[in-house]
Amino acid sequence: MGYSKHTVVIVGYGGMGSYHGQLISSNDNLEVAGTYDLLDTRRQASVEAGYKAYGSYEEVLADPAVEVVLIATPNDVHKDIAVRALQAGKHVVCEKPVAMSSAELKEMIAVAEEAGQVLMVHQNRRWDEDFRIIKQMYEAETIGTLFQIESRVHGANGIPGDWRHVKAQGGGMLLDWGVHLLDQLLFMIDSKVVSVSSTLSYILGNDVDDGFEAVLQFENGIKAIVEVGTTNFITLPRWYVKGLEGSAVIEDWSLTGKIITRNNEAEHREPTPIRAGVGLTKTMAPPSEGSTLTGALPPAFELPDGFYSNFVAVIEGTAEPIVKNTEVLRVQNLIEAIFASAEQNEVIKNFDTHGA
Ligand code: NAD
Q1: Helical H runs in 116-204?
Q2: Is the peptide bond before 298 cis (omega within 30 degrees of 0)?
Q3: Which range is least confidently modeled, 88-92, 126-130, 266-270?
Q4: Same-domain status, 234 and 344
Q5: Distance CA 348, CA 8 (A)
Q6: pLDDT at res. 192
Q7: pLDDT value, residue 296
Q8: What is the pLDDT of residues 138-186, one digit of tens each?
Q9: CB of residue 209 inside a 6 A radius of ligand 1
């Protein structure tokens, strides 16, 4: 039996485009048919990597051998590149943030539906192990029902690169790491976001945010704090979560962390007061001996498939997408609410379409 792979052209062969080349090549059912980039240097890099470099985007679209367009350009041109590919009968995988606004994304979804082509967004951090450990704790109530989730990424390198500094190109950290952290939360918590309040930081003097903090209140009672910082020379833990029976922390990408839970077997004993600063405290003293249990983080929640294997199954019509466009649209709405909250110094409500 003849067997052929699905052919992908990578549009935007920069940092992430090159990484997609490796991901696609390691999938048995996909192959890179070539790349297209505006820059000669990147076309040359493509040829050096063994990929054909198309001379124009029109040439990509006109090539009947191309089934899939992978978009890894700066954010402001995602929509146009995606719409043209879909209308030319190609499937599209698009980097995050898929669009500059919810209006743009709605247009892209409508074009995909009309063309009968697949549009799937690369929300790859749903597969991050640190996140899947927290998702497992949420699902299994390892430390009891979660009521507070703090998700942070901190760096001290400022905003990297060129276009990430430019508002018109979709720069700034909310549209960068923010998209991942918010997508993880909405993917995990099956409840409506009833309000959001936020601040954006402009410490570095760019016209885009170099970090932000957002406080989300969910209908089911969970409060989430999401923070991205690029001026943090000392970093706070990647995750800090509280449940009715304990607390958990994941410090870093190497998954250093622990859970501490109430020991329900132990007899209740009042903690011994300690000296703290220039005073005494019982409230903030360590729990009395034996009253808590320290344990390892649970194994991570398993997703049914990897991103690209799922994508292949979706275009072959044998599976539902793990990253659904309705979910991506919710994240886009949330991002708009976070921008609005920061600009207006207001708590924003009634924006989430969950369950609508
Ligand atoms: P980059 O600057 O390294 O690469 C972008 C490339 O696109 C450049 O080579 C540029 O010449 C090219 N380009 C610009 N406009 C083009 C156009 N109209 N047609 C063809 N090529 C064009 O940027 P990057 O860091 O690779 O980011 C690219 C995208 O990937 C962004 O949307 C970013 O948010 C996303 N990204 C996602 C992740 C992730 O983990 N999912 C990580 C990094 C970046």
Answers
A1: 129-140, 179-188
A2: no
A3: 266-270
A4: yes
A5: 41
A6: 98
A7: 98
A8: 999 999 999 999 999 999 999 999 999 999 999 999 999 999 999 999 9
A9: no
Contact 143, 261 (CB under 8 A): yes
* The total number of structural domains that make up the chain: 3
**In whole angstroms, what is the distance from residue 205 CA to residue 207 CA?**
7
Cα 304 to Cα 92, 183, 309, 323: the distances in Å are 21, 18, 10, 12
Whole-angstrom distance, CA of residue 180 vs CA of residue 252:
16
d(CA 100, ligand 1 centre) in Å: 14
Q: How far is the CA of 95 from the centre of ligand 1 (A)?
A: 8
Distance of CA 127 to the CA centre of its chain: 9
pLDDT, tens only, 237-274 = 999 999 999 999 999 999 999 999 999 999 988 899 99
84 and 204 housed in the same domain: no
Q: Cα separation of 289 and 35, whole Å?
A: 62
Calculate mean pLDDT across residues 42-58.
98
- CATH number of the domain where residue 140 is located: 3.30.360.10
Cβ–ligand 1 distance for 95 under 6 Å, the answer: yes
Q: Is residue 1 part of a domain?
A: no
Q: How many residues does the chain have?
A: 356
**Does 158 lie in the same domain as 107?**
no
> What CATH number is given to the structural domain containing 60?
3.40.50.720
| 99 CB within 6 A, ligand 1 | no
Domain that holds residue 338: 127-251+297-303+333-349
pTM listed for this prediction: 0.97
Q: Domain check: are 280 and 343 in the same one?
A: no
Residue 294 has pLDDT above 80, yes or no: yes
Q: Are residues 193 and 99 in the same domain?
A: no
| Ligand 1 centroid – CA 136 distance (Å) | 32
